[in-house]
Amino acid sequence: QEYTALKLQVKEWSPKMAEAIKGKIEDDAKVYFVPATLRPETMYGQTNCFVGPKIKYGLFKLKEKEYVVVTKRAAWNMAFQGHFFGSESFPKSQDQLPMVYEAPGSDFVGTLINAPLSFHTEGVYILPMESVSAAKGTGVVTSVPSDSPDDYATLMDLQKKADYYGIKKEWASKEIHPLIDTPTYGNLTAPTLVKQLKINSPKDVTQLAQAKDLAYTEGFYKGTMLVGEFKGEAVSAAKDKVRKSLYDSGDAFPFADPMGKVVSRSG
Ligand code: ZZB
Fold this sequence. Notes:
This is leucine--tRNA ligase. By secondary structure, this protein is α+β, with helices and mostly antiparallel strands. It is 27% helix and 22% strand. The protein is built from seven helices and 14 strands. The strands form three sheets. The chain has a nine-stranded mixed beta sheet. The protein has a three-stranded antiparallel beta sheet with strand order 4-1-14, with helices on one face. The structure holds ligand ZZB. Ligand ZZB is lined by residues 36-39, 42, 132-133, 136-137, 139, 141-142, 144, 147-148, 212, 215-216, 265.
C-alpha cells in the first residue's frame, strides 16, 4: 500500500526530549516526524500530529544533521526502499539502523512541529492517540479533524480531558477549517459523521470504522476542494496533484508498507 510520507520539522521539543537529546544530535540538526497518509489532499487541514503514547519511537539519522522520528519497523522499511541511509551503510538487521535515541510516544507529547501546507503556519503539537497502531505505516499519524472521524473524536476527547492526558488544552484546540465540500456531509465531513453516528469517544471503534469508510468514499468520489492550489477541482483529480507538489517541494516522499493491512482504497 503506497502512502505519502510527510516531513514535519521539529520547531521546539517537549521539555523531556529537549533534555534527553542534549549532546546526542547536533544543535542545528533538522528532525522530522514522518506520518504516513493516504490523503495528501487534506494536508491543508492539519491541526496536530498523533503518536501512540506507549509505542516506542526512534530518532534515526538520515544524513549529516538530519533525523526522522518513526518506529523501528518503519525505519527498516525506509532503509529497504532506499529513501534514506546511503547504500554504503545499508543495515543488515534492525539493530544496525542508525538510531541515536529511543523513547515512548508520551515523551514527545507537546513538541511543536511545522506541518507543510497547513493553515496553522505557527506550528502544531504532538499529541497522544491510544488507537495508533505500531504495526502500520510509520506509527506517526498526522491529524485532520475536518475529514478524519478518528482524529476528530480523539481531539474532542483530549480537549475534554486535557488534565487527565497531561496536555495543555490549547494544544488540542487549533481551529478546524473546511477543506472539502461533499453533497452528503457538507464541508466538515468528519464532525458531521461523528454527530450522525452518535460517536461519543475514541472508544466507539465500530462506529468510527464505519465513519472512516463513509468519509473516504464520499470524499474521494464526490468531494470538491475548497482550498489550496487545486481549489474547485474534484478530490479524485486533486489528490495526485497535491501529492506530486509535496514530493517536488521535498516536503514528502513515497512510502510503501509491505506488511501493512492489505486493503485496496481508491487513490
Ligand atoms: C491524514 C488523513 C486525513 C487520514 C483524513 C485519513 C483521513 P488505512 O486506510 O487504515 O490504511 N494512519 C496511518 N498510520 C496509522 C497508524 N499506524 N495507526 C492508526 N492510524 C494510522 O488508514 C490510513 C489512514 O489512517 C492514514 O491517512 C492516517 O490518517 C491513518 F481526512 O492521514 B490519514 C476518512 C479518513 N480520512
